Amino acid sequence: MTAFSRRLPRLFSLALIFTFLTLCVSFGLQKGGSLLSIAERAALTMTYPVQKGIDLAFATTSKFFDNYINLIGVKEKNLRLKKDLDLMEYRLALLEEAGLENLRLHKLLNFKEQHEILAQGIAAHVIGHQTDSLSHILIIDCGANQNLKVNNPVFTPGGVIGRIIACGAQSAKVLLLVDQNSACDVIIQRNRIRGTLQGTGGDFCRLAYLQRTADVKVGDRLITSGLDNIFPKGITVGTVVAAARDHNGLSQQIKVKLTFDLNTIEEVFIIPSED
How confident is the model at residue 188 (pLDDT cuts 50, 70, 90)? Predict the structure, then answer.
């Protein structure tokens, strides 16, 4: 291909442009326009596609940035709303917890009113547990400063749960009835038969030191006898859930379920010493 052949398309394009401009000038002059205005219109006509493209690009870019900025604003607003929602949920949880605590304390108050001997008792919160295969102990937030002493009895609205075995100034340890080192003198409410409730270290207690012929039935309720000089008389302790005689008929195996659940105790009631 010769050099002239390669330049031919370019020359053809220039010829078309020249012809277009000549026609525009001729037409404009016939209509009475000036050469300058004709040139301006021609320039505008030729640059219109480029200008239109530039305007469209700027409009698209501007819209993109506006949307981006709006998205940032929406995201920040959503974060603020989420924080407000989390705060409201936290406050609602506090209110619900306060309501539940008030309900539990109200039950303690009713329990106190049902037993005249508990009139001088005080309420305390459980602040710790020491529970394993050998011991079942609660830590409460009252102690010697509240006139508590060793062997002060401890209750829940369900009844007796144990006694204090150690006191600090602002805290105390409570030995629960299920502990294997615990014992409580009790009476079968139905027939007034006495026995000793002993902890087993598990979820149940056993009733021991009964008469060989003692009449014990499943469902019998046990109450404190008051004869151990620790627990006041007449307070509920638990219920017999199993009663069977040994094969020789000389003794009975009696299982007792206590009135409290170790895992749900949050407040307790204590009768402090009088002196």
Answer: very high
- Count CB atoms within 10 A of the CB of residue 157: 20
Paired tokens of 137? 């102990």
Mean local confidence (pLDDT), 154-169: 89
Mean pLDDT of the chain: 76
Asked if the model's pLDDT at residue 172 lies above 90, the reply is yes
What six digits make up the tokens of 108?
């303690």
Higher pLDDT, 183 or 3: 183
Ranking 10-24, 74-88, 191-205, 249-263 by mean pLDDT, the lowest is 10-24
Q: How far is Cα 206 from Cα 187, in angstroms, rounded to an integer?
A: 13
Task: Determine the residue type at 36.
Answer: L
Give the residue from 241, 239, 273 showing the smallest Cα distance to 158: 239
> Tokens at residue 165, please?
């075995």
Angle at the Cα of 173 from the Cα atoms of 93 and 260, rounded to 5 degrees: 60
Rg (CA), the chain: 47
Its sign, for the CA torsion 217, 222, 228, 233, is: negative
* Inter-residue contact 164 to 268 (CB < 8 Å): no
- Which residue in 153, 105, 118 sits closest to 266, CA to CA? 105
Helix axes 35-114, 3-30, angle to 10 degrees: 90
Whether the CB-CB separation of 271 and 230 falls below 8 Å is answered with no
* CATH code 2.40.10.340 for 122-270: yes
- Collapse the DSSP code of 235 into the 3-class scheme (helix H, G, I; strand E, B; otherwise coil) and give the result: coil
| Residue type at position 231 | F
Domain ranges of the chain: 122-270
